[in-house]
Write the structure tokens for this entry.
Amino acid sequence: MTEETVTLEVTRYRPGHDSEPRTESFAVPYRKDWVVLDALNHIKDRMDGSLTYRWSCRMGVCGSCGMMVNGVPKLTCSAFLRDYYPGPIRVAPLANFPVIRDLVVSLDDFLEKLRRVKPWIIRDVEKPVAEGEYRQTPAQLDAFKQFSMCINCMLCYAACPVYGLAPAFIGPAAIALAYRYNLDSRDEGYRFREPILSESVGVWECTFVGECSVVCPKGVDPAAAIQRSKVAGAKDWAMSMLMPWGGRK
Amino acid sequence: MTAPRAAGSGLYYPKMSPTWWLSRPGYIRFMIREVTSVFIAIFLVILLIQVHKIAQGPEAYAAMVAKLRAPGWIVFHVVALVFALYHTVTWFMATGVIQVVRIGDRQVPPALVVAGNFVAWVAVSLFILYWLLARS
Amino acid sequence: MSPGKTIEPFWWSLFSVGGVVAAFLLPVHLFLHGLAIPLGWVSLSHARLLALVGQPVIKLYLFVLIALPLYHCFHRLRFILEDIGLHGYRALLAVLCYGSAITGTIATIWVLLHI
């Protein structure tokens, strides 16, 4: 009995050989419990060992396996073949990023922007360990918890047309993480992040398309974080106009 | 949009299509929402002209109202009304996401914030209608 | 403003306020002045309208109703044009769009002062 198959149309690109990407078709077994990542692993194991792609945890927490599946940014470990049956399924590298090889994109721009927003707790003075932990009420945790769920998978950057049109835009995840730390009651670093967000390539590039939040696999809702940051930024700007001598923490 | 580099240099820089906004339903909805502003702007100009005509006298105003009875203008205003309502709906839904309302320690559910906006909108609209039409 | 700071928050704030005004007030006025009055569903005498728009409070209301949403509309138009490929002309687009909104504001003030 021949096994049912589904066709994957996978982007291939070899630096130094190809001037632009091309598509290769593979017929992989159609298994109801398989995800696109399983299909890619099958191709690499049994059909073409040169296929190059990133993956790690295969359960949606590491953020490594982001790719375009039928034109939509997805974690391939969470994209079930049965949802795309009968196919064909187009698998392409994550949009809006330079392609290194096949399905692997360069993360440099995102990592640089992530560093720029200083996504860590900043204290004026670190509390000594002997004095105990920082205490947070459930309400204080609620204020930022949703935005801490980011796994840096960059699906939001692939979904954001503004990032595609204007790559200098700092982008959804970076702003959401800056917002997460600004909201953390333990953090005192707002004044370091505010100049980054208030640049024209900071929050003001965003036109609230909202697709970043639609594709986010962890429900971070970066679009909400960005719009709330715009409100905060507008208030800051108004205060700086009215009271140029004043300072925020 | 960046141009692709030559073979041998390594990285491939993808181009963004000028019709990117047609490629996904979410993008199309976004464009429609943005385009509502064009119709609103045109209506605002027409409204300003109407106010000016009121000041110019009964004949001038009546002449303008007669012009607005033309099928073309009626169609425009129907379309503009639909777009204005789309703006209202999308704006209130955005408000629910952006405006975090806290009572004491608890956050008001966004759906309630949105509903509150709609209730206020209906109240304001009805008040305007009453104020203009019911009072002599 | 310190280096790196931009005037974008100013335009965004106007866009926001204009958006709120448009969301709450425009549908009913579109219905009234674009459909109900021309089609004769309601009758408002010219004398009554003239008396209304002559009042300073109504003039203020009309200014808010007409001038503020202009900033909302032209802010959106500016970004529509940037997003369909004119991102390289953003300085020119900003001047044209916000300039139009400012022109509309001046025209609104002129009309209201000449009632």
Remarks:
- The mean pLDDT of chain B is 90.
